[in-house]
Amino acid sequence: MNRFLAISCVILNSLILSFSSPIAAQQNSYYCESALAVKQRLEQKYNLKVAYANGWNISKYYFERPPSNRNIEYVYQLDGSGAESVFNSPVLLKSIAKEVIQGCNSVGIVGFGTFRGGRDQVPGKYFGLLSDGRIELFPCDFSSKERTHWGKRWCYD
């Protein structure tokens, strides 16, 4: 009986430590190797700095009825001499978004913006996964005050 209790304590301690360790924390739905690899490649290949790259849960914000299994939005804010040319290439942005969406199983939309003088330049460009599996540019909806339907992006000017 004592041996069983000792083994149970070791297993329980292992589980508790695994959930509280930094490595385990990185495995949440906001962390994705593909998204980080894209950030590094953008900086190395296109002579720019990614001033901001992060993902967050969009299920309660921005969209009405986003895909329940793809409720993370990942955004890259581009800065530096190569930022404008990358930002103005919809083919490149779409291919990057496709890579992130296909490589990150919880990401449903990927956004890009330029970052100059310490502030975002809006509106950004957002590419999302549609119900038929295509990844397309979400056009801006300037008429909405907050949330839009999936397939459009709330924007302000």
Provide structural commentary:
This protein is α/β, with parallel strands linked by helices and 157 residues long. The chain has 5 helices and 9 strands. A 5-stranded mixed beta sheet has the order 1-3-4-5-6. Helix 3 (33-45) runs antiparallel to helix 5. The protein is globular and about 35 Å long. Residues 1-29 have low confidence and may be disordered.
Can you give me a brief rundown of this structure?
By secondary structure, the chain is of the alpha/beta class. It has five helices and nine strands. Mean pLDDT is 75; it is low at 1-29.
Find the structural class using helix and strand composition.
alpha/beta
- Strand line-up in the sheet with most strands: 1-3-4-5-6
Strand proportion: 25-35%
- What order do the helices and strands follow? HHHEEEHHEEEEEE
Unreliable parts:
1-29
DSSP helix count? Answer: 5
Query: What is the overall silhouette?
Result: globular
Largest sheet: 5 strands, mixed
Compute the average pLDDT. Answer: 75
- Helix content bin: 25-40%
Q: Determine the N-to-C terminus distance.
A: 69 Å
Summarize this structure as a short list of keywords or feature phrases.
alpha/beta; five-stranded mixed beta sheet; disordered N terminus
SSE topology sketch:
Layout: H1 2-20, H2 22-26, H3 33-45, E1 49-57, E2 63-64, E3 72-79, H4 83-87, H5 90-103, E4 107-116, E5 119-129, E6 135-138, E7 140-141, E8 148-149, E9 153-154
Helix pairs in contact: 3-5
